[in-house]
Specification:
This protein has about 425 residues and is an alpha/beta fold. It has 14 helices and 20 strands. It binds zinc ion (ZN).
């Protein structure tokens, strides 16, 4: 059987499933070819070629893992990774609550070791250190890991693999708790990464993984959360199989609201013989009822996604024909999946605004829409503001209450196009 990389080197050969090795994969949703969603362009870069990569996740007919071929090298994405988790105060608070709950569940004491894979700038492990426990972070991005060490969180610069996992255990001992939050989708070698988790955790320890839930993604049509850095999209059923591939058994699951709907999986070494909780059985039953135990159950999603595109493009064309001005709000990475898939360029959306100064004066990748500071909207008084970060709907609807002063309306394209009143959020169309 060819390896995944060999299969990609030879496009004529089939893509193979990274979890079970099957060469029998079906299309899930074809979003065309787009640039990496975080590569915002400078004015000079507008004159240069811009590489694009297919954005076409498949579903494995054998194990049902929904996955993207690894066309983007995580080494390149992570080495210069500029995202510091601690910039978000709500995220740091989420991490603090997690540490409190995990301490109770795993029975952690002052001599317990907690290891986190992809520990970022220590946003989570700083709470472990503050509670007087031992902490070790494994973080691939050198500059982000350095920020963690400055906070007093011991951090190794490495990608987690079976070898680095074994090295961490040899140096620091077995971990009572291993955490891997918001990374399990970002690793192309899911089996090797899981073996790395198993290598680090004590034989009676716990592993906790937080990752976006495919069931929620599909229910709420969050297709814009599909981008090249997300290599796989898990149900509880496929997460269970992925964990088993590395010697871990899923024993409990919690549904958490992060990233529009995530699962927090609790796993333990397989040889402990711990069975799944009622919560695992309940979510598996919910996924089965939604059809996600079959390839056919994944089939309707592509049609729902193209309906969102049709509704949004129709709205923008009709607004342009009626002489209305539409501006964007936000320039998140996921907005670029939406804009590229829908083919929305500055003729349909003159500009967008964002609070991040790094993006000001830059352009959205692929669609080349200019990004301005938020004050631009107040000066221009557009008729409609198309909001791209739907996950912050309540917050942004309230923040943009003043758009009502000049009779402007807000437009949310996902899960289906809605025009709402700024401030109240009352739906006025349809
Ligand atoms: Zn498979």
């Amino acid at each position: 059987m060819p390896t995944e990389t060999e299969a990609l080197d030879n496009p004529a050969s089939k893509i193979i499933c990274r979890l079970c090795g099957s060469a029998d994969l079906a299309g899930f949703v074809d979003l065309g070819a787009t640039p990496p969603c975080e590569l915002f362009l400078t004015a000079e870069a507008l004159e240069a070629p811009e590489p694009t990569f297919p954005l076409h996740p498949r579903v494995c007919r054998s194990c049902l893992l929904v996955q993207l071929p690894p066309l983007i090298d995580p080494d390149e994405t992570f080495t210069e990774y500029a995202y510091f988790s601690s910039f978000s105060t709500s995220w740091v608070e989420h991490a603090r609550r997690f540490v409190t709950a995990a301490t109770e569940r795993a029975g952690l004491t002052s001599d317990s070791l907690v290891v986190e894979a992809a520990s970022n700038d220590g946003y989570l492990l700083q709470h472990v250190v503050a509670d007087g426990m031992r902490a070790v972070g494994v973080e691939p991005s050198a500059n982000v890991g350095a920020a963690a060490r400055e906070k007093g969180v011991p951090t190794i610069t490495a990608f987690l693999s079976p070898e680095t996992g074994a090295a961490v255990r040899a140096e620091h001992g077995p971990a009572a708790l291993v955490v891997a939050n918001n990374v399990y989708a970002h690793i192309p070698d899911v089996v090797g990464f899981t073996q790395g988790l198993r290598a680090m955790v004590a034989d009676d320890g716990w592993v906790s993984i937080e990752v976006q839930h495919l069931l929620t993604l599909m229910r709420h049509r969050q297709f814009d959360t599909i981008y090249h850095e997300h290599f796989q999209y898990y149900t509880v059923g496929t997460a269970q199989k992925a964990l088993r591939s590395g010697g871990l058994e899923l024993v409990d699951v919690e549904l958490v609201p992060t990233h529009g709907g995530s699962i927090r999986c609790w796993a333990r070494p397989t040889e402990l013989g711990a069975g799944p909780s009622q919560a695992v059985a309940d979510v598996l039953a919910e996924e089965a009822a939604a059809g996600l135990e079959t390839v056919e159950g994944h089939a309707g999603f592509a049609g729902e996604v193209s309906r969102i595109r049709n509704d949004l493009v129709r709205f923008l064309i009709e607004a342009a024909d009626a002489g209305k001005v539409v501006a964007g709000y936000g320039a998140p990475g996921k907005g670029n999946t939406l804009l590229n898939y829908c083919g929305i360029r500055p003729d349909l959306l003159a500009y967008t605004v964002d609070r991040n100064p790094y993006k000001h004066g830059r352009y959205t990748p692929g669609t080349r829409i200019p990004i301005h500071p938020p004050e631009r909207i107040d000066a221009d008084r557009p008729d409609y503001v198309l909001v791209l970060p739907w996950n912050l709907r309540e917050e942004i609807t309230a923040q943009l209450a003043h758009v009502a002063d000049w009779g402007g309306k807000l437009v949310y394209p996902i899960p289906s196009l809605q025009v709402v009143e700024p401030g109240s959020g009352k739906v006025v169309d349809p």
